[in-house]
Specification:
The protein has 4 helices and 7 strands. The protein has helices at 2-46, 56-63, 132-136, 166-187; strands at residues 64-69, 72-77, 84-92, 97-105, 111-118, 148-150, 158-160. The strands form 2 sheets. A 5-stranded antiparallel β-sheet has the order 1-2-3-4-5, sandwiched between helices.
Length: 189
């Protein structure tokens, strides 16, 4: 009788654990799909491609190919006259993890654009990296020898830093240049 109870108990425990793991996996899949749609919308917006919330995935598939190189994922434009690659880069800021979307011309000479996907820096200071006007200053920026975020930008590879946000600006510079190094390593360069 004790053996029978033990078998029933283990069977119920096994069934509950299986249901919990299956539910967790389904939740992960659903959350992943939501994050991908948001990323696709950011990429399409960066390139000024038209899209709607309902068609963002198919619109993205019309304009971009997804290429995996090791642990990195790149989004390569399909248009011949707009030969670019976009990718995410992330790293520590002053107070939080910063994640950016970087788009680069395929000849790897200049940035096409940049979007901050997530950050938790000080509002009004480092948090200003999320402002469109700051992000737009990266468009057409030379990436040789590397991107610089400085107090007074004068060179083709420099952008003005945000006043009062020195550490956040330095962190953003590091993660942009690390992302570009990964791109060069993964696509030869």
């Amino acid at each position: 009788m004790k053996d029978f109870r033990m078998v029933v108990f283990l069977l119920i425990l096994f069934t509950l654990c299986t249901l919990l793991l299956t539910g967790g996996n389904l939740a992960y899949i659903k959350a992943s799909a939501v994050f991908n749609r948001r990323l696709y919308a950011e990429i399409l917006d960066l390139y000024n491609y038209p899209f709607t919330e309902e068609t963002v995935e198919s619109d993205f598939a019309d304009w971009f190919n997804t290429v995996e190189r090791g642990v990195n994922i790149y989004y390569v434009g399909k248009e011949a006259d707009r030969s670019t690659v976009a990718f995410k880069s992330r790293g520590p800021g002053l107070w939080s993890l910063i994640e950016v979307l970087i788009a680069v011309e395929m000849d790897k000479s200049e940035l096409f654009g940049l979007r901050v996907l997530s950050q938790g820096e000080t509002p009004g200071l480092g948090g200003r990296i999320s402002e469109k006007s700051f992000q737009d200053s990266f468009s057409g920026l030379s990436i040789e020898p590397q991107v610089k975020i400085v107090k007074f930008a004068i060179a083709a590879n420099e952008v003005d830093a945000i006043s009062g946000a020195t550490k956040t600006s330095q962190a953003l510079e590091v993660l942009i240049n690390e992302g570009l190094e990964n791109l060069n390593r993964d696509f030869g360069g």
